[in-house]
Amino acid sequence: MLQETSQSSWADETIERRRGRKIAARGVYRDPVRSSKEFFVKTNGLHWISMMLLTSIPWAQRVWALPFLSVLAPSERYHEERHMRHKTITDWAWQMILQVVRWLPGRSLVIIADGTYAVLDFLLKVSRLPGVSAITRLRLDACLYDPAPAREAGKRGRTALKGPAQPKLAQRLKDPATQWEKHTLSWYGGTTREMEIATGTALWYQSPVPPVAIRWVLIRDLAGQYEPTALLCTDLHAQAAQIVEWFVLRWTVEVTFHEVRAHLGVETQRQWSDLAILRTTPALLGLFSLVTIFAQQLLDAQAFPVRQAAWYCKTLPTFSDTLAFVRQHLWPSAFFSVSSTDADTIQIPRALFDRFVDTLAFAA
User: Do the beta carbons of residue 353 and residue 336 sit within 8 Å?
Assistant: First the structure.
């Protein structure tokens, strides 16, 4: 089995582009791939939330995101037509986290998510789960406060929920008194980058939700290539540099979504019934993880036999190489051998057969 180097999971959504009047759960959403800050592109499709294990793959020498739980989040129109209460993205994510906690009792989990999950009600529930913490983006204008002072004996009135207001993070970026620390961090694309980090603890509060204790992290690029970013973590004792490096692993999730579309057939399905839709896409996402585990078992701590392309030198395997490697071991099985010789069957040399399998494994 894969040796897990971190206990972090990523929760993210993807749009499966599908059309058809009979697909009841479809909706109209912002296309995250084709949209940008200047252009808003809409698309028809199904909204999936996938929880993935972020783990280091030894023979790939990088972290991969392995899907293990995927849930369909129907559109608001779907629930309105059926007179049902609409569940938001964070509602579905909360149920998924509870399910994972039931599967892994007593296991510490770090849930990494994007700014969509920076919702106080969601973060409050996550912070109350023992051994579970969440990391998301944080708005630079979030209302942060000091902890509430101790209640004086004999004082009447309601107990204070928060203390004095802290400066907004946007103000801390311009404040010369802000204490910055330089760090060399693992960055996108497997590179490292010199960044400045400022951090602290606060209560994030907005009525009527009770305040949530967080550790905020400000990130500033010394080269000025990236805009300043703020993150939060519900674990007050987490190291700021570790929080940033965990969050940077989000890019591996986008790689997984791309690979399952390119090689495992997501968005090519033709079924339209509700039960078939609920089965097929989670199975294809889970197949990404199964292929990775099969490759790990077949290698048995040996080096991965990387196939060299004709136009460039490849040093590390990708998922397409992994998929072909598993196919090469599955296809020449006993199911493809013949027990007797007849007029419709001819035998070919083993070397030629292996060449056919190798070619088809990469072409399929």
Answer: no
